[in-house]
Amino acid sequence: PQAGAQTQSDVYDYIDNRLTNLESKLEGVEGGQEPWSSYVSEFGGRIMYDQTFAIDSDDSLKDGLGVDDLEEGAELRRARFFAEGAVAPWLAYKLQIDFGDGDVSTKDAYIKAHGLGGLPSVKVGHFKEPISLEEQTSSKYISLMSRTMLTDGVISQGRNHGLMLTDHYGDDQVNVALGVFDTGQNGKSAITGRITAPVVYSNGGRQVVHLGASLSQRNVDTFELGLEPEVHKTDDFVATRDVSDSETGVEILVDDTQVSGVELGAVLGPAHFQSEYGQLSLSTADGTDPSVDTYYVQGGFFLTGESRPYDKADGGFGRVKPNRPFTGANSGSGAWELVARYSVLDAEEMAGVSAIDGDGNSTSVAAAGVAETNVTTFGLNWYPVAHAKWMLNYVNADQDALGSASYVATRFQVDF
Amino acid sequence: PQAGAQTQSDVYDYIDNRLTNLESKLEGVEGGQEPWSSYVSEFGGRIMYDQTFAIDSDDSLKDGLGVDDLEEGAELRRARFFAEGAVAPWLAYKLQIDFGDGDVSTKDAYIKAHGLGGLPSVKVGHFKEPISLEEQTSSKYISLMSRTMLTDGVISQGRNHGLMLTDHYGDDQVNVALGVFDTGQNGKSAITGRITAPVVYSNGGRQVVHLGASLSQRNVDTFELGLEPEVHKTDDFVATRDVSDSETGVEILVDDTQVSGVELGAVLGPAHFQSEYGQLSLSTADGTDPSVDTYYVQGGFFLTGESRPYDKADGGFGRVKPNRPFTGANSGSGAWELVARYSVLDAEEMAGVSAIDGDGNSTSVAAAGVAETNVTTFGLNWYPVAHAKWMLNYVNADQDALGSASYVATRFQVDF
Amino acid sequence: PQAGAQTQSDVYDYIDNRLTNLESKLEGVEGGQEPWSSYVSEFGGRIMYDQTFAIDSDDSLKDGLGVDDLEEGAELRRARFFAEGAVAPWLAYKLQIDFGDGDVSTKDAYIKAHGLGGLPSVKVGHFKEPISLEEQTSSKYISLMSRTMLTDGVISQGRNHGLMLTDHYGDDQVNVALGVFDTGQNGKSAITGRITAPVVYSNGGRQVVHLGASLSQRNVDTFELGLEPEVHKTDDFVATRDVSDSETGVEILVDDTQVSGVELGAVLGPAHFQSEYGQLSLSTADGTDPSVDTYYVQGGFFLTGESRPYDKADGGFGRVKPNRPFTGANSGSGAWELVARYSVLDAEEMAGVSAIDGDGNSTSVAAAGVAETNVTTFGLNWYPVAHAKWMLNYVNADQDALGSASYVATRFQVDF
C-alpha cells in the first residue's frame, strides 16, 4: 500500500493488523521447528568496494618501480559470507570465506571450546594470530581504508592454522592469548602471545586507555617482504625483491624470526587515539641479523559526538553506532568522523642481506626496496547507519630511495 | 488505541514499542541469539547442469580449429549462492558467487541507495553494465540455453566495477541507466548508458512492446574476441587469435572502442519475440578502424498458454510461472514452450588489423577467425514449476571460412 | 529514528521494512515454511581441522621420494557450506562447496526427481558415482581420518557429472543405483552401477549385515595413479609417475578401464566391521592389460555402548549420537570409540607399462612407484555431542620398494 494515497488512520489499521497477526503467531512458538540447520545462529557477510586514484607521483618513483603509471582503479576489497553458531553450549564455530577481487580465500575457519569450568578458551583451526591492536580490530571497524605497514606483513602474521588459548583475569581487566601456529613451511611452527588490558575504562566506555604487548617466535627458513604504502590498490613500495621486477620474489635465508609489538589505544568522548610500535628481528643465515622497525600514531574525532566503541573481551575496537541514523529524508545525519595517521617503516638493515631468488639462485636484498618509508593519511568517514560506512582517504607515501606519491581513495561498505 | 485520537508521534512510539518487543522475542526463539543476521532478507541460488553433444561437423572446421573432435560433454554451467537484503530502508545490497565448472567468480557484489526523495538510484560495486535486452534478462529466464554472439563479448560487457544511476520517468514507462565502469585496464574507464520503454503494456502484461537503445564509450588499450557459436561447451569459432591455437591470445591495439545497440521485445499472449542489432567500433592504432556488426531475431510460443513475463522496472524478461504446475501425478502439465532464433555476426573487417600476441610481439588478425558466422537454434522448454526448467536445444553454426557444425544440448535447472 | 523528524511516508517505509523482515523470519519459525528463499530447507556446513606429524621414516623412503623430510603440518581438510531444499514436492536439489586448504571445489551440485509414481529416482548434476561402502559414507561419518587406498583413486571415482537412477526393492532391502557419468575426457562416458542389501537388520539397527557390489565400465584415453598412504597431508607413496618428481605426471595409455568391488559391513551392538575388495583392470594400448588389486579390513568398538548407525536408504553408515552427550561440567562423557584397519594395495602389474609424460613424450611406469603398499591404522574417536568429533590416528605405511613411515594425526571436526 502507498502511505501517501491513504489516510493516516488507514495506514495505522494496516500496520496494526500485521502486528497483531505477528504477535499471535509468536505465541507458543517455543515448540516450533528450527528454521534452518539449528546449529547456525548467524549468517552474514560484508561488501567493501574501493576506488583508488593515483593523483600525483615522482618520476623517480615510477622509474624505480619500472612502471609507466602507478597501479590504481576499482576493486572489491572484501566480499564475504560467513556462518557461525554452536554445536554444544561450550563448542562454537565460525566459517568465513572471502570472494574479493580475483581471489577466493578461507578466512576464519575455527572451532572454539569455552566456558568449561575455569579453563581457558581453546580455539583450533584457521584464524588470526594474537598480535597488534590494529590487526585484532575487524576490517569492518578500522578507521582508515588500509591498515598500517606495521600490521600488513611486518609484525602481524594474519590468519594461520593453529591452536590458541585465551583467558581473562580480574573482571576482564587483563586478556591473555597464547597460541602455536603453523608457519606454512612444512610443519614448522611459531609461538605467539599477546597480553592486553584496558587500564582505564569508565563512563560506559567513553573513557578508555588500552595497553598491550605481543611477541612471536617463528621457526622459518625464508622471509620475504612486499608492502603497499597503506594503499591496497597500488604497487609495492617496500620489498625484499627487486622493486622494478614484480614477477620475481627474493627471499631472505633465515634460521628463525622474532616479532614484538607494543600498543596503546585511547578513547576520550568523541576523540580516539591509537599507536603501535613493532620490531621484526631476523636471525639470518649470513649472520647479519637485521631488524625492521615500524610505528604509527593515529587520531580520530567524531563531529557528531559518538565515541569509538572499545571491546573489553577482545582487546580491540568495535562497531560505531550513529547517535542519529540517516534512515531517509528528514532523519538524522548519521555519524561523521575525521581521522589522521602518520606511519613509519625502516627496513634499511635488510639491504645487502643474503637471499635466494625465485629460481633458487643466490642473490642479496637491494637497498632501493628497503629504504625508510613514511606514510601520512587523512580520512573522512560517514556512518549513515550502524552497518554501512563511506570512507574518503587522502594518502601521501614517501619512500626515501625512490620518491613519493599521493592518492585519493574511497570505500563504500556494508556488512550484514 | 485509535490512531485518530493521538498525535502521529504517539502512534509511532506505540508501534515502535510493539515492534521492538516482537524483535526481541524473536531473537530469543533460538536460545538467546539472533536467528540470523537481521540484514539478510533472502538467501538462495541456482543450479544449471548442461550436457552438450557435437552431433555433426565439417572436417574443414575441425582442421581449421586444429582439433580431432569438437569439444563437448557435461558441465555445471552455473552453480550459485547469493544473499541480499538492506541495512537501512534506503540502502540495499546483493552478493552472489558462482561456482560453475572449474571456476569461482564473484558475480553481483553491490550496494544500492534508492528512494531518497526524487533522486535517482545509485548502485556501486560489481554488477552488469546496462547494455542489451538479452544481457539484462537473468540467465534463469533466457529462452535458449546460450545467449547470443551479440551478447557474449561483442556489445555486452558483462559485469564490471562501477557506479551507476538509474531512474524511471512517467509511471515507469521510460527507464534510464547511466554508469561509469572500470575497464580493468589499470584504472581506464567506460561510460555506458541505456534507455528503454515498454511503449505498449496492456492486458496485465500479455501485450507488450519494448524498445531500447544502449551506448558505451570505452577507454582501453587492447581488444580481443573469442566466441563460442552459441553453444557454451565447445570451441571458439570466432576469434582474433589464430583459431587453431587455443593457447595464444591475439589482442588488437586500440585507442578506444564504442559499442551501440538497439533492442526490440514483444509479447502477444502466448507468443513472444525479441531482436537486437549491435555494432562494435574500434579506433585502432593502425587507423583501420574496423567494425563488428551483429544481430539476432528470436521468437517463442507457449503451447500451454502462458505469457512470457516482462519486468517494467528492469526493462527485461522475468520468471515464467506455469498455469498448471506439475506437482506430481494427476497434476498439471507445467508450461511447454517452443523457441527459434537466427543470429549473425560479421567481424570480417578485423582481418589484417595490427595486433600483439601473448608474448607482446607484433602480429595481425588472421581472416579465418573473423569470417561471418550464422547460428540457428531451435529449443523446447518445459517448466514443471516456476523454479525449475528443462531445456532441449538444437544448434547449427556455420562459420564462412571454416565450415559448420551441429549440436544437441540439454539443461536441467533449478533456482531457489 | 524520531517520528516527528520525518515525513509520514518515511516512517511508514521504515516500519514496513521492519515488519516484512519480522514476517519472513517468523515464517521459518512456524515450521512447514522457510524464512528466506522459501525453497531452501537447510543451510549448513562442516569444518575439519587436521594436524599431521611424520614421527618416523626410513631414509630409503625419503631418498626414493626425493625429499629431505616427509610432508606434514596443519590443514583445513574440509571447510564447506551447503544448501538443500526442494522446488516442488518431487524435485529436490543440493549445492555444496568446499573451501578446504588452498582450493575451492564444487562438491554436490545436483537436482533430484523422486516419488513420481513407481518410477526410480533420477539425479542429474555433479555427485558421487555409486561405488564403495566407504565412499558412500559421508566424510562426516567415517571412522578413521582418511579413507582407504581402495577408495581414494583406485575403485572409487569421486564426484563426476552424470545422470543416475536409484531404486529400492522389497521393503528397502535391496538398493540399486545405475548411472552414466562424464569421465572428463572430452565427452567420453562411464557406466557405473551398485547393488546393496542389509541382509540382516534387526534390533533397531544394532544388528546389521550389509552386502554390496559395484561395477564401472569407463571409456578413457589415459589413466594416472597418485596416492597418499591413508594420510592426507603427506607425500604420494604410490604413483604411476616417477615418485621422486612430484611435478611431472605420467599417464598410462588405455583403451578403457573397468572397476569392480565387493563390500561387507556389519554392526553387532557396540562393535562394527567393514571390509571391501576392489580391482581396477586397464585395457592398455600396449596390450599388457595390468590390474590393480586392493582390499581393507576395519573394525571398531564403542567403549560407551553406542552402535554405529546404518542408513538403509543409502546403503552406508551415518551419524553417531552419543548416549550421554558432553554438554559441560557434570554431564555425560560423550561417545568413545576404538578403531583399527589394515589396508593393502598391489599395483605391481603396472610396472613397465607404456605411458606418456607431461610433455606428451613416450615413457613407461617405473616399478618403484607401484610396489605393494600396506597401511595399518589405529584410531581413537571422541564424539562429545552428535555434531562434533575429535579423532586421533596412528598410521604405519610400508611401501615394498621404498620403505616405511609412521604418522600421528589428529582432527577437530564440527558440522552444522
CATH topology of the domain at 50-74 and 168-415 in chain A: Porin
Number of strands of chain A: 23
Separation, N- and C-terminal Cα atoms of chain A:
27 Å
Q: Kindly state the percentage of residues in helix of chain A.
A: under 10%
Q: What is the CATH superfamily label of the domain at 50-74 and 168-415 in chain A?
A: Porin
Structural shape of chain A: globular
Please state the structural category of chain A: mainly beta
Oligomeric status of the shown chains? homotrimer
Largest interface: A-C, 54 and 63 residues
Polypeptide structure, described:
3 copies of one chain form a homotrimer. The first copy, chain A, is mainly β and 416 residues long. Chain A has a domain at 50-74 and 168-415: Porin. Chain A has 4 helices and 23 strands. The first copy, chain A, has helices at 8-26, 59-65, 133-136, 150-154, and strands spanning 42-57, 73-88, 91-98, 105-113, 121-128, 159-169, 174-182, 189-202, 207-218, 222-223, 226-227, 238-239, 250-268, 271-284, 291-302, 310-311, 316-317, 335-346, 354-357, 362-364, 373-383, 388-399, 403-415. Chain A has a 16-stranded antiparallel beta barrel. Chains A and B meet through α1, β1, β2 and β23 of A and α1, β2, β3, β4 and β5 of B.
How is this structure best summarized?
Three copies of one chain form a homotrimer. Chain A has 416 residues and is mainly β.
Can you lay out the helices and strands and say which pair or pack?
The structure is a homotrimer of 416-residue chains.
Chain A lengths: L7 H19 L15 E16 L1 H7 L7 E16 L2 E8 L6 E9 L7 E8 L4 H4 L13 H5 L4 E11 L4 E9 L6 E14 L4 E12 L3 E2 L2 E2 L10 E2 L10 E19 L2 E14 L6 E12 L7 E2 L4 E2 L17 E12 L7 E4 L4 E3 L8 E11 L4 E12 L3 E13 L1
Antiparallel strand pairs in A: 1-2, 1-23, 2-3, 3-4, 4-5, 5-6, 6-7, 7-8, 8-9, 9-13, 10-13, 11-12, 13-14, 13-19, 14-15, 15-18, 16-17, 18-21, 19-20, 21-22, 22-23
